[in-house]
Pyridoxal-dependent decarboxylase (Nocardioides simplex), 482 residues
Amino acid sequence: MSQPTPDQIRARLAALQADDLPVHGGRTLAYVYDAGLADVDALARDAVAAFAGSNGLDPTAFPSLLTMENDLVAFARELVDGPDSMVGTITSGGTESCLLAVLGARDARPEIDSPSIVVADTVHAAFHKAGHYFGVRVIVVPTGPDHRADPEAMAAAIDDTTVLVVASAPSYAHGVVDPVPAIAAAAAARGVRCHVDACIGGWILPYGARLGRPVAPWTFAVDGVTSISTDLHKYAYAPKGASLLLHRDPALRRPQYFAHAGWPGYTMLNSTLQSTRSGGPVAGAWATVRAIGHDGYLDLTRRALDATDAVAAGIEAIDGLALVALPESTLVAAVADGPLDVFTVCDEMAERDWFVQPQLSYEGQPPSLHVAISAATDAAAFVAALGEAVAAARAAGPVVVDPGVVDLLRSVDPATLGDDEFDMLLAAGGLADGEGDLGLPDRMASVNALLDVAPPALREAVLVAFLDRLARPPAEPFATGT
């Protein structure tokens, strides 16, 4: 195979990207966040490219990255009501920020043999991941009917093994802000750290408050809040790969650092889970925030929240859909009633070039469709498309899972899921052709309906097995295309 030219490689990259969801235009309502500012996006890409080879491992070797990181933390201080003592770290994303919050809390209490954290059942899965990775027990407290954390129940769950209590601002699934003051007070009364997961709300809620919208207290202005996570690559609209983990003071941050001198190489010193980390995301975030500034973010927030209001009102006006909760930031979740099937609605929205995220049922709560509204989202166009999608879904009828498949799902032990059982499940879900090759169908409603009737543990096992099958190398590299 001859070596391709740079132009051929660029063409192949463009061809590969053609199958991806669009990252601009405001129609992909999960995974990406679009400000609709083409000039800022271009500037950020230039910054990422210019610093892609820089390495955040050693701030003395690349002091530019340290300067930009400290600038971003200082900019965020005003948003989160941070004291002068507040410090912060740039991470690769919200999950890493949450992981480090748990790790730092655990390592600050080495005398506890079996540490635990207390969370609501709506807490982001990143905290369960942290528990899995770091050997920390996750004590889950049910939320109330308003989908907010129950502060009295969380207080009762705190014991001598608790190293961290977590609140959300807002929770991802339902878009509501937990009662942070009561939760933080309960944690402080027991001498326990309290982390606020504001990965979604950290760059929206402060500007919403400046616009005169009601915002429940969640920042460092709340006594007892010890750390906050907020993502730059969400509503700061920076390129992917940048989040902030903020601590009230340096002593709270110090346990997250890792140093090791007990080997013949250089003394390793890390502020995050990564060692080598590209300077590209740091520079991209710095350029974005510097270009937009407070006035720009105020305008972007106004546009995003106005669009959210319009989407929520549009959903309430559509027969067959209902809001899960009134949105308190930019996240909107809706459920269907009667014969309407939200999974089919999601498929119909995809047919109209809108990506909305399906959420499966949980503990008696029905499945829902979920959207994260950006400043670039055209709310009127979205609501019009949703009305059409609901009508089409109602005409098509709900997806029905074969009772035999339901029985099969109930008979499978997730802990011992083997290849034969997995192949049967793939065939039942239409995810494999006659030769056993994997592939996603054009419409996902039948797959989501199948997953929805499966117990959560089996969903996890099936999706892990599916990802494992997908991530297999081809017989020859670069065999398809140029």
